[in-house]
Write a structure and sequence with these properties.
A non-essential component of RNA polymerase (RNAP). It catalyses: RNA(n) + a ribonucleoside 5'-triphosphate = RNA(n+1) + diphosphate. RNAP is composed of a core of 2 alpha, a beta and a beta' subunit. The core is associated with a delta subunit, and at least one of epsilon or omega. When a sigma factor is associated with the core the holoenzyme is formed, which can initiate transcription. By secondary structure, the protein is α+β, with helices and mostly antiparallel strands. The chain has 2 helices and 4 strands, in the order E-E-H-E-H-E. The protein has one domain: Ubiquitin-like (UB roll), CATH 3.10.20.730.
């Protein structure tokens, strides 16, 4: 299992604007599995990034609201 960082807008109607981009973290086996998990959500997904171990540690240390979701 790996941890993926998902960059998204809250609704499909929103244009992609960097300042409005939100992020969430998901544990999954692949990027396609993450995208399947989010199929029913109304998010406009910009990018799904698999985190390396060092990047994951950075995110944990520098994001007060860091939480890995499993859906």
């Amino acid at each position: 299992m790996a941890v993926f960082k998902v960059f998204f807008q809250e609704t499909l109607d929103n244009r992609i604007i960097r300042e409005d981009t939100l992020t969430r973290y998901y544990e999954a086996d692949s990027e396609s599995e993450v995208r399947k998990m989010l199929d029913e959500d109304p998010y406009n997904i910009e990018f799904v990034q698999e985190l390396s171990p060092s990047h994951l540690e950075y995110e944990k240390a520098n994001n007060d609201d860091f939480k890995v979701e499993n859906t």
